[in-house]
Amino acid sequence: MFYNRSMTHPKWHLPPDRYFDPDPTQRRIARELYESVADLPIVSPHGHVDPRLFADENATFGTPAELLIIPDHYVFRLLYSQGIPLESLGIPRRDGGLVEQDHRQIWQVFADNSHLFRGTPSGAWLAHELHVVFGVEEKLTGATAQMVYDQLEAKLATPEFRPRALFERFNIEVLCTTDAATDPLLHHQAIRDSGWSGDIRPTFRPDAVVNLLTPGWRDNIVALSEVSGVTVHSYPTFIQALEQRRAFFKSMGATATDHAAVSAYTAELSPEEADAIFQRALRGEATPDDARRFTAHTIMESARMSIEDGLVMQFHVGSVRNYDRLTFDRFGPDMGCDIPIQAEFTRNLRPLLNKYGNDPRLTLIVFTLDESTYARELAPLAGHYPALKLGPPWWFHDSVNGMMRYFQQVMETAGLYNTVGFNDDTRAFPSIPARHDLWRRVSANWLAGLVVRGIVDVDDACEMIQDTAYRLVKRAYKFNE
Amino acid sequence: MFYNRSMTHPKWHLPPDRYFDPDPTQRRIARELYESVADLPIVSPHGHVDPRLFADENATFGTPAELLIIPDHYVFRLLYSQGIPLESLGIPRRDGGLVEQDHRQIWQVFADNSHLFRGTPSGAWLAHELHVVFGVEEKLTGATAQMVYDQLEAKLATPEFRPRALFERFNIEVLCTTDAATDPLLHHQAIRDSGWSGDIRPTFRPDAVVNLLTPGWRDNIVALSEVSGVTVHSYPTFIQALEQRRAFFKSMGATATDHAAVSAYTAELSPEEADAIFQRALRGEATPDDARRFTAHTIMESARMSIEDGLVMQFHVGSVRNYDRLTFDRFGPDMGCDIPIQAEFTRNLRPLLNKYGNDPRLTLIVFTLDESTYARELAPLAGHYPALKLGPPWWFHDSVNGMMRYFQQVMETAGLYNTVGFNDDTRAFPSIPARHDLWRRVSANWLAGLVVRGIVDVDDACEMIQDTAYRLVKRAYKFNE
Amino acid sequence: MFYNRSMTHPKWHLPPDRYFDPDPTQRRIARELYESVADLPIVSPHGHVDPRLFADENATFGTPAELLIIPDHYVFRLLYSQGIPLESLGIPRRDGGLVEQDHRQIWQVFADNSHLFRGTPSGAWLAHELHVVFGVEEKLTGATAQMVYDQLEAKLATPEFRPRALFERFNIEVLCTTDAATDPLLHHQAIRDSGWSGDIRPTFRPDAVVNLLTPGWRDNIVALSEVSGVTVHSYPTFIQALEQRRAFFKSMGATATDHAAVSAYTAELSPEEADAIFQRALRGEATPDDARRFTAHTIMESARMSIEDGLVMQFHVGSVRNYDRLTFDRFGPDMGCDIPIQAEFTRNLRPLLNKYGNDPRLTLIVFTLDESTYARELAPLAGHYPALKLGPPWWFHDSVNGMMRYFQQVMETAGLYNTVGFNDDTRAFPSIPARHDLWRRVSANWLAGLVVRGIVDVDDACEMIQDTAYRLVKRAYKFNE
After folding, report:
1. Among C372, A284, A414, C455, which Cα is nearest to B74's?
2. What is the ipTM of this complex?
C-alpha cells in the first residue's frame, strides 16, 4: 500500500470555547467558570485502566493502533457497525485466528472512516488526544493518516509519553482501578514498592464470585479460598472470605467497592436459604432464579459490610453483557456489544434502602443506563436517603448531551450535593484528560445557563463548579480522609 | 448559641428576567408576554392548603420555621438527605419524642445548609417568598440567618401577614383545597359563614374509602355512613354514600374530585364481583388484588358519576406512598418519602376511555410522575379523546426544567388546548405566588421560543400566554360557570 | 350560512428562518447549511400516498376539504379532541350514516378552530401547504376561511395542481407507497404503462397475512393463494407464496418491505410448531399467543428472505391499532386513534440479531414510538450491528421537538451513519414538501448547533447535511443501485 506523506494539510485545532452555548453572555460566564477549574488535579475514582502500565517504569503504550484503536471498544464498535470486520482492525480472536498485523494499515482504515465519529464522544476524545496530548496539527483523514501515524509513533518512543510520565503530566491526583475479589493486587504492590509517588488504588469488585452464573464460578470460588486463606464451603465462609478480601483491598488503599447487575433487585434471604443456594451452586445446580436472588441478597450484605468497614459502595445497573453471541464467541467479553435494558429502582432498591438507606455511614452510589429513571426514581430517592448518591452519566451517556440530560433531569430534584462529580470509567488511559475536560466544560456551561437565567448567582456558580469538578468526588469517595 | 446580628451584608434581589433564555430577542419577547399576564389573578384549582388558616380571621402562620420549614417536606427532605436528623428540624414525632423546640436554631441549621437548595425549585420558591413576599434584602446564608429571622418574625406579627390578608394581596381568585370524602367541611362552612369574600372551595377526594388497603379503612367506612346518612353495608350503599357526599361537596362549591392510585389501571367489575370484594373488605379479608381491582372499578364508577353530576375528575398516578418505613413509622405520612414508579396509561385507561372517553360531558384530568408517558401515551390520548385533558407537570416536575420538558413533549401532539394551565398542588400557602409566577415566566419563555423560531406568530403567542396563565384552568375546572 | 368575502386581511407569510435557533451565529450557519440542500430532490422511501393519484394523468385532489381535512387523521383528531363530531367534518361513516356534505362548511369549522393547531406539526405543514404550495397570502382564521377556500378551489381546478404536476413541481426523485402482500399493483402497472417518468415504487407489507388476528385473515390467505399462484395450505406454502410476492414486488421496482407489530418480539419456531400454529389459524383456532409467536417467527423469516433477495426490511414497532372501539366501529381504521405503548428492543430483537444482525447483506431499519428506547437500546444496538439502522422520528415525533430529541438522543451513540435520513410516512401528498423542508431545516439547525459548540467543524457539517437530506436515504434504501 502506498502511504502519502508528501501532501501539506491545513492546520487544525480544537476550538477553545468548545461545548459552550453560543449566546455571548452565557459563553463568557461558562468560559470563566471553566477556567477556574481547568487546571485542578484529576480525581478518577472509577475506571478500568490496567495497573500494569504503572508497575514498570519503562512500560510503553505500543503503536498508535495499540494506543487508540485495538483496546478501545468505543472506537471499533462504530467501524464494525458499518461492516468493517474486527479482524481487519487487529482485534485478537479467541481462537488465535489471523487478524491484521500491519498497524499502519489498521490506522489507515480507521482514518478513512473518521467521518463515522462526527458528533460522537469518541470523536471528541480522539480529537483531544491527538491535538492536546500529542500536539498533532492536522485533522485526521484518510489523506493525513500516515503523517499523523508518524508523529504519534515518534512521540510514543520518547520517555515523555510513557504511562507514568503522562500520569504526571495529566495531573492525576488519584486513579482507581477495578479489580476482581480474587486479585492479589501484585501490580498495585509493585507500584507501591517502586517508590513512585503516583496514587493508584484498587477497587473491590466481587461480581465474578457473587454472580453464580459467571462462567468459571466454581474456579473463582477456589481462587477466593486460596487468596483469602478462608476455605469457602458454605455461605458463611463465603462472607468471611469476602470480608477478608475487603480488608486486604482497604489495606492496599481501596476506598470503594463496585457491583454490577442486570437489575437493581435487592432482597434479604434467610441464612438458611442463602446457604442452600450456595450449596446448589457449588454442586453446579444453581438456577437463574437462584442466581438472581443470591445477587439480590449479596448486594444487601455488601451494604452491611460497607457500613462496617467504611468502603464506599458503587452499583452499576442495567447492561446485558455479551449480548452478541457471535462477537462474544469470536472475540470474548468487553467488545462493545453490551446493550442496556430498562431499569427499575423504586421497587428493587426498597429492601436495601429500608434496611440501610437512613444510615449516614453508608455511601451507596448508583449508576444507570436508563435515563428515564433519572428524574422519576433516582433523583427523588437521592433527595431523601442520606446513604444514596447518584453517580455521573455512565458509558453511552458520558457525552455532551448525556451530561446535559443528567444535569437537567437530576439536579432540580436531587440537588447537586447528592451527586458525586465525575467518573471517567475508561480503560483508555490517554482519554482521561479529554473526558474530565469535557465534564468540566459541560458543567461550566450548565452552570452558566443557570446564571443567565437567574436561577443561581455567580457566587453560587463559582462554588458549584468547584464542587462538580473536584470537591464532591473527593468527599464521596473519601479521598480526603 | 450566639447569633450574629451586627454584620452588614450586601443587598440581594431576584433577577427581573429570571427563567428567560439569554438570547436578547427571545428574552425581550418573553418579558413582554410575561408582563401581559404577570398581574392576572391566581386560579389555584388543586392543592393542599389547610382551610383552617382562613376559617378564623385572626389565624397566623407562627414562627418563620413554622411557616417555611416544619410543614414543607420539599424543604426538609433535602436537609435530611445530607444526614441532618428530622428531629433537629422540629418535625414532630409520632411517639411524642423530643424534637428541637428552638425555632431560631432550626432556622440556623436551614440557613447553614442553604447551598443544598441551589438550582432546585424549592430554592427558587424560597427566594421569591423571602424577597418578594417578605421584602428581605439579604441573601439567606448562615451569616444572615438570624437577621432574616428577625425580619420575618416582625412581619409575621403584623395583620398584613395573616392568611386572609396574604390571600388578598396574592390576588387569588379561587383556591381549592383537597378534602376526604368523610370531611364535614366545617372550616369551609366557617369561611362562608364569616362573610369574608375569599373564594375557597373543597375538592372531593375519596381515596381513603376507595382504597381497601388504607390503614383504618373500616373506620373510614363507619365515618362515611355517619356523615352521609347512608348505612354503608354493601357496594350499592357505598356508591350511594359517595353520591351523597359528592352532592354535598358540590353544594359547598366543589367543582372537582381527586383520585390517586399507584397505577392507572381501570377495569369494570360485575355488580356481584364488586359487592363480593366489598364484603371481603368489610370482614377484613380483602387481598391486594381485591384492592387493585376495586380501585380500578371505582375509578370507572367515578367517571360515570362525573358525567352525571358534572364534577371534573382529577387522577394522580404513579407514586409509592410512605416508601421509607423508618421515616413513616417515626414521623407519619407526607414526609417527603413518596417515590414515583413507572406508569402505563395506554392499556390501563383503555376500559375507561372506551366507555366514557368520547363523552364531552366528562373532563378527566390526568397527572403523571413518569415523564416518559408524556409524548408516548398521554399526549396522543389527549389529542384524540374529548374527555381527556393533561394536568400540568406534577410535584418533582413543578420546576423550570420540568415545565420545559412538559411543553416540549406534550404540546406538539396534544395541542395546548388539551391541557389545563397550572396547578400549584402545595400545602405551603406562601409559596403560591412564587409557583404561579414561575409557571407564567417559563410559559412566556417557551412561547417566546416558538416566536423566534417562527413556529407561532406574536398574535398567537399573546393569546396562548393568556390561555396558559388564566383561561384554560378556569375553563377546565368550570370556574366560569 | 353567510360567508364573508369582502373584508381585507393583512398579508401573512412563513418566516424565512423558521425552526432555526435565535442565536445570530447559529442561525447564520443553519441558514447556510439549509440553503445548500433546500433544492435537492425529495426522496420519499416510506409513506401511504395512494398510487391511484398518479395512475390517471387527469386525476385531481377534489375540494379543499378533500385535500386537507377529510383524509388526514392528523388534522381531524385535534378537532375531535375538542368535542367536534367527526360527522361534522365529513368523515365517512361505515354504516353510510349522514355526514356533512357542504365542504365550505367543513372548511369553516376547521378555520374557526385553527387555534388548536398552534405549535403543532400539523399547523406547520398546513401553513407550508397554504402559503408555499398554494400561494395563499392571508392567515387562515374563521374570518378568512371562505376567501382562502376560494383561492384553493380555483387553484385545484387548474392542471398545475393535478397530482402528477405537483409531483414534478415538488421535485420528487422517488416516492414509495405501502402495499399489501396481496395487492396486484395494478395502479403501479398503469403508471409504468402510461410512459410518465415519475418514479413511484411499491413496498411489500405482509402484515395482513402475517398477523393471524387480522380481521379477515383467512380471506387474505385465499387472496394470497390466488395472486401468487401458490396454494397456501401450510406454513411452507405460505412462505413460498410470500417469496413469490416479494419477487413480484421487486420486479415492480420495490426495494423494501415493511412490517408493523405491537412489540419487537422475535423468536424462532421449529418448522413443526410454525406449521401447527398455521393450521390452527386456518381452522380459526389461533390464540393471541399463537399470533404473537407466529409474528415473532415470521419477522425472523423476513430477515432471512431479505438477505436472500436484497429487499430492505423496515420494522415499525409499538402502536396499539384501533384503540378507540367507538371510533373504529363507526369510522373504521386509520382514524387517529392508534396509541403508542412502551417498547422493548434489547431482549426482543436478540434472537433476530444473533442470527442475522452481523450479516452486512441485511438492512433492518427500526422505527419506534417510544423515545425512551432511542438512547437506551436502539442507538447502542445500531452502533454495533452491521445490519441494523435507525429510522427517523416517526409519526407523533415527526416534529421540530421530536427531531431535536432524536438528534440529541441517537446521534452521539449510533453515529449519523447508522441512521437513514428522513421518511415522511404520510398519506397527505401535498404535505410532502412541507415535511421534508422541516426535516432539512431542523437538521441544519442541529448541525449549526454542533458547529457553534465546536463539536464538528463547518466542513464536516456541510457533508453531514447532504447526508441527512439526501445521501443516507438513497444508500439505505438502495436507490443508487
Report:
1. A414
2. 0.96
